[in-house]
Amino acid sequence: MKISARNILKGKVADIVKGATTSHVRIDIGGGAILTASITNEAVADLTLEKGKQVYAVIKASDVMVGID
């Protein structure tokens, strides 16, 4: 599979917290870094996601926000 996104991070599912329609999937990408993706419960089922499964976090954003304390 080829995709246009340039930010592809390999990791493992650390946790899945299911809500009514959306799940928060925490992905351990190593070095102590964890990404959280909000995806539909249907997508979790279609991808057969479970803790420990190897996945890719694909990030494609049109905007980046910067904040300060």
Question: Could you characterize what this model shows?
Answer:
- By secondary structure, this protein is mostly beta strands.
- It has a single domain (7-57), classed as Beta Barrel (OB fold (Dihydrolipoamide Acetyltransferase, E2P)), CATH 2.40.50.100.
- It has one helix and four strands; from the N terminus they run E-E-E-H-E.
- The chain has one helix spanning 41-46, and strands at residues 7-18, 22-30, 33-40, 54-59.
- Strands 3-2-1-4 form a four-stranded antiparallel sheet.
- The N and C termini lie far apart (40 Å).
- 3% of the residues are buried.
- The mean pLDDT is 92.
Note the topology.
Layout: E1 7-18, E2 22-30, E3 33-40, H1 41-46, E4 54-59
Antiparallel strand pairs: 1-2, 1-4, 2-3
Helix content: under 10%
Strand order across the biggest sheet?
A: 3-2-1-4
Distance linking N and C termini: 40 Å
**Subunit arrangement of the protein:** single chain
How many independent structural domains? 1
Radius of gyration: 13 Å
The CATH architecture can be given as Beta Barrel
Percentage beta strand = over 45%
Q: What pattern of helices and strands is seen along the backbone?
A: EEEHE
Shape: globular
* Count of extended strands: 4
Q: Count every helix, treating DSSP H or I runs of 4 or more residues as helices.
A: 1
Structural class: mainly beta
> What is the CATH superfamily classification?
RNA polymerase II/Efflux pump adaptor protein, barrel-sandwich hybrid domain
Unreliable segments of 5+ consecutive residues:
none
Query: What name is given to the CATH topology?
Result: OB fold (Dihydrolipoamide Acetyltransferase, E2P)
**Mean pLDDT over the residues:** 92
CATH class: Mainly Beta
Tell me the major beta sheet.
4 strands, antiparallel
InterPro entries: Mo/tungstate-bd_C_term_dom, Mop_domain, Transp-assoc_OB_typ1
Protein name: Transporter
Keywords: Molybdenum
Pfam family, one: TOBE
